[in-house]
Amino acid sequence: MDPITLGIIVAIALIVLMAIGTPIAFALGGVSLVALIYDRGLPELTYFGETFFDRIAEFGFVAIPMFILMGAAVASSPTGRDLYRSLDLWMGRLPGGLAVSNIGACTIFSALSGSSPATCAAIGKMGIPEMRTRGYPDGVAAGCIAAGGTLGILIPPSVTMIIYGISTETSIGRLFIAGVMPGLMLAGLFMAWTMIACRLAGGYNNPMAQSAERLKQTVKENVDANLKALVRVLPFLAVVAGILFALYGGVATPSEAAGVGAFLCLALAILIYRMWRVGPIKLIMRDSLRESVMIMLVIACAEVFAYALSSMFITQTVAGAIADLEVNRWVLMGIINVFLLVAGFFLPPVAVIVMTAPILLPIILAADFDPYWFAVILTINLEIGLITPPVGLNLFIIKGIAPDISLRNILMGSLPYALCMVLGILLLCLFPGIALWLPNLIMG
């Protein structure tokens, strides 16, 4: 059978399996198994097992469960509450200040946890009820948390960046630092839109509207408590800074830095917040194990899927067809962006990266694009998928936090932030230095 025809059949079978609710890992593994047996016969089962286990046996993958454990330790402690209260004190005087402080809290918590769902849940549980109490529109309250949570897969340390680095054999340290400036840029765009949206809505309690005397009294009442909360958060920020320094300075590998970071964050959570009982520790370990196994299973099955596509020459044929397109390289980049955007609508970031990054990287390099810049572009496309249907993981997390807000209101509040991400992609295309300046400065 022609490779293109076979590829179309494989793609349709995969889409059908996922549409009926089959877990992504099982869908990838099942389609790969059937395709290999059809094309190569039963002896190919030997290579199926070898490919499944050999790839995830790489030492570099140790960083994934360690960073997940680090994020779980932060997410299960009251760190998000303390961070939220502190930022509300300093940013609450801006127009729409509470919503802006929520985005700031999401930005910093993303660096601590490295997880979009954890960021949404930790900040949203406190931020959404408080914003609604103060009269913020439901769409703004839900949208800013959903969008702020997406930064978890871009701002380092990011699990998705680790997976991209291993899949494409690029420097994880350089990937981490390439995500810093774009992450801050997106946070700035989110804050700018939030202030505009609050101005347009006009239905929120702006602290600037209070009398100067009352405002001074409010600040005085809260400053001591919020400063103490900030002091409790600072050790966690120091751990993240230490991890990044170890990576960029060549002191430790990602796996070593992740292991030390996980231990320190777990120890800090126990010491600072007195989480001595077995229950909270067991919960942290359970959540870490569950997410780690899920991600590793997806990676293993995606590797088998990539092996099957390569064995049937589907990957080579598609890559060759794209490379042979006589179009401007920016048109090619536009096509790739649309493809990634659509893939992000239906698949989680981990699955998209392990399935597409090895295929797209040779095309990107042939078109003279920087692979680290492309990693940021790819990640932002996947961020958009987190707040857009039909999957939209962050949307459903917000719905779980505030079940009385309709899914339509959550979606409508999130869409402007998705447009901010599209604007961010355009800015990165016009000014690649946003992503490349810092890694070039630090790492040469």
TrEMBL record:
It comes from the Bacteria. The keyword Cell inner membrane applies. The chain crosses the membrane at residues 6-38, 59-78, 98-123, 175-198, 229-251, 257-273, 293-315, 373-397, 417-438. Keywords: Cell inner membrane, Cell membrane, Membrane, Transmembrane, Transmembrane helix, Transport. Pfam families: DctM. One of its GO terms (molecular function) is transmembrane transporter activity. It is found in: Cell inner membrane. It is a multi-pass membrane protein. InterPro entries: DctM (IPR010656), TRAP_DctM (IPR004681). Its main location: membrane. Belongs to the TRAP transporter large permease family. Part of the tripartite ATP-independent periplasmic (TRAP) transport system. The complex comprises the extracytoplasmic solute receptor protein and the two transmembrane proteins. NCBIfam families: dctM. This is TRAP transporter large permease protein. It comes from Halomonas campaniensis.
